[in-house]
Every structure is written in structure tokens, then in C-alpha cells.
């Protein structure tokens, strides 16, 4: 029996809520939940864990706090989840129902929605009752209606040239006297000016990146993270610590540095969807002289022929592609095609700084594959303990099951998008031609994911009957004919200057890092 009862408090406030609805604020949600826990759980030994998503929409589950909460649920490290109301957990009635009606009961997790008077321990088998389901549908419809209102209001702001992003783009900062206006941020603007001036004087993007790195100038992502530390947006760029030629070219192509406002270039295909589509040119707001320029029109136009010069096409071939990393800096190595349909890998960061440990030489895909095959065949004779190997196979099985669940969620999400499109068409809010195109795209995605799911389920069935020893034996028998098996065994390959490699196996519990 567990020593203590773990209660997770989940609090959420969307960016649209802002400070307008004080009753919905994080502080008030916390106070309400804490009072409830003291009243209902005061007599039992318990520990509370608080998870917060501040500034995140409830129309999808892609939120940092929510992800942590669901991991806790799946790993059985929480006994009870308490929220202010259903809408704080999710505004999507399908996702809400899936967790409240199915997953949480399966995991034996108690779910409490205070303001809705819902406690799963008192509603076993009846979470799908009319009142709960109706509230979830109402929350979903409210989100759709709110989304349309927000889009309409934003369109007005776009047409007026007003900036509504929480932060300004690199080179600018928010005007303290007008949140919808941006002004020049001198330190970053000076860097932007240098980029254009160096490019105009014939300095290539790679050379520009190298100079900036040698001078220790922060990349745009690093700079923004320092300027706006509370926004988690920049966390995903944590590894982007060096300037690259693509970063430089991206800034040199940005026409906004001439003082031009460009807004609303993309839009979501449906409420809660992660997919975006390009707006038509007529819907993209473009306003001249909207803010102070960093570079002149003449300078901008002068560097465009240089920036838009041809680039070497990338190869889609390569057995090892996506698995190779530089042993010096740890970044993925880039691939390019050579004669005889072979592929070579090189570290794209080797040219961006004079002071690094990057691998300076390239290595062939076929050469790497041969080295790995030889290593595996040698290691076959000293394969690890069978019991530990079986654990590794079980872990692989878990990963496949998790991937299958993600595919199911994707299929369900696409089906929801189709439902949303049908509802919008019925309301006369959607063009029939666009509707047909989107439905076709979603149907194709559903079909493709269902095929992938079927294949994955077959693989799961096969893996259940497979031991690690079997995997190695199969590899030995067929590696020469089916090198795709390499990808089943190898997680990452680190390449060093002398073509020494270090392999991280997918079966990490039983295989140490092998160097050769």
C-alpha cells in the first residue's frame, strides 16, 4: 500500500483570458482547489502536486503542464486529479470524455471537477451522463465561437498594422507606450545592420555566421530567451547556440526590416488543430512604413540576389540518415549525395567557429553501415544477459504501443477536424471548394495513419514474441540484404575527427556505449 495519497492540482489560464476574468485567474483557481482539498482530504495523509498551464488554450492537450500530468497518470504516480471545472482540463469534449470516461478509470485515478459537482468515485460507470457530456459539448462550442471572435478582432488589428504578438521580432522591442507598436531594439538592430552590410560587401552567409560566433554574439533565440524569460516558446531552441548560414539567410530575407508590416500570413485549419495553412495574398495584411526601418529599401534589394542564390539539393537517400551526430558538438550531421547514389555526412557547424571540436571530415553512409554491421556481429558472441535483454525488448514494445496510441489520437483528431468543418459548412461559414479540399486532405491523412497503425500493430504482435537474441540473430542472417534492421538496433552514432565512432543502441539497458 502506498505511504501517501498523491493529489494533482491542475490549473490553466488561456492567453485570451488575460487579466479580464479575475474569477478564472490562477490565484483564484489555486485558492478554490486548496480549500476543497483541505475540506475533503484533511483526515488522510496526502501530498499535493501543482501543475500549471498559464497562457495555453484548452482546445488541445499540447500543454507542458498537461503533458506532465498525463505522464504522472500513466506512470501511476498520482491518485487523484482536481480541477476547478471541466473547461480548465479541456475544452474539447471528445478528449475530455476519453480521459474522464475511459483512461482515468482504467488507471484507477479519481477525477474531481469542483464547480461541476463531479467526483468520479461517486459516478463510476456514469461519467458519460447527459449533464457531463452536455457541458463538454458546450465548452467545445464556446471555444469555436470564441475562436471566430478572436480571429475577427485580430483581422481588424492586422489591417491597422498593429502588432499583437507577445514579443517583437528580432531587432525590435515592444513600445512601452503602445503595446501594439514596435520600436528599434538597438543591440539586436545593430547586429541586423551588420548582416546586411556584410552581405552587400560580398560576405557569404557561412562567413557571416562564423564571425558572429567568434565574437560570441547571441543567436536570435538566445537573445529572445534573455529578453522574454517567461515565454516557454524559446525553450525548444535551447540547443541553437550557434549562428548558422540558414539563420543569417532567414534574417536577410525578412522584408519587415525595411519598415514594412506583414501580418496574418498563416492560419489554423480548425479550432485546436496544430496544422496551419498559408492565407491567400488578398488576406495577408501588408502596410508600408508601419515602423522605423533598420535597413533601407536599397540595401535590402541589393542583398536579395545574393541571398536567393542556388543551393545544393539534398539527397533523400542514406541508410543512416537521421542517426548520425557530430562527436564534437553533438548536432545532427547533414547529408549530401555523391557519385554512385552514395551519401556522405558532414557537420554543418564545423565552419561557424574557429574554436570548436567539430568533426572536420566527412564519412560515407555505406562505410558507417559496414562498420556497424561488423560491430554487431562481433558483439553477437558476447550478447548481454538474456533477462536484461528481455527487459529491453519489453521497453521497445512499450515504445511501439505508445506510438500506436499517438497514431490513434491523430486519427481521432483528424476525425474531429472533419466534424468541425461539416459544422462550419452547415453554418455557411466555409466555402464549398475549400471544404472539399480540406475533407479530402483529412480523409487521406486518416487513411494513411490507419495503414501505419495496422502495420505498427502487426509489429507489436511480432515484438511480443521476439527476444533480443532473436533480433541479433536475424540481423546477422539478413544484414547484408536488409540494412533497415540497423535502424531497429541503433539509436545514435557519434562520429569523431579520426572516423572513430561511438554507438548508442536502442537496447540501452543491456548494451554499453561501444567505441571502435
Q: Can you walk me through this structure?
A:
By secondary structure, the protein is an alpha/beta fold. The protein has 3 domains: 5-144, Rossmann fold; 160-307, Hect, E3 ligase catalytic domain fold (Alpha-Beta Complex); 312-516, no CATH class. The protein contains 15 helices and 18 strands. The strands form 6 sheets. The protein has a 5-stranded mixed sheet with strand order 2-1-3-4-5, sandwiched between helices. A 4-stranded mixed sheet has the order 12-16-17-18. The longest helix is centred in the C-terminal third of the chain and has 41 residues, at 386-426.
Helix content: 40-55%
Mean pLDDT across the residues is 75
Main β-sheet, spatial strand arrangement: 2-1-3-4-5
Give the biggest sheet: 5 strands, mixed
- Portion in strands: 5-15%
Number of domains: 3
Pfam families: Recombinase, Resolvase
Keywords: Coiled coil
GO molecular function, one term: DNA binding
Organism: Candidatus Ornithomonoglobus merdipullorum
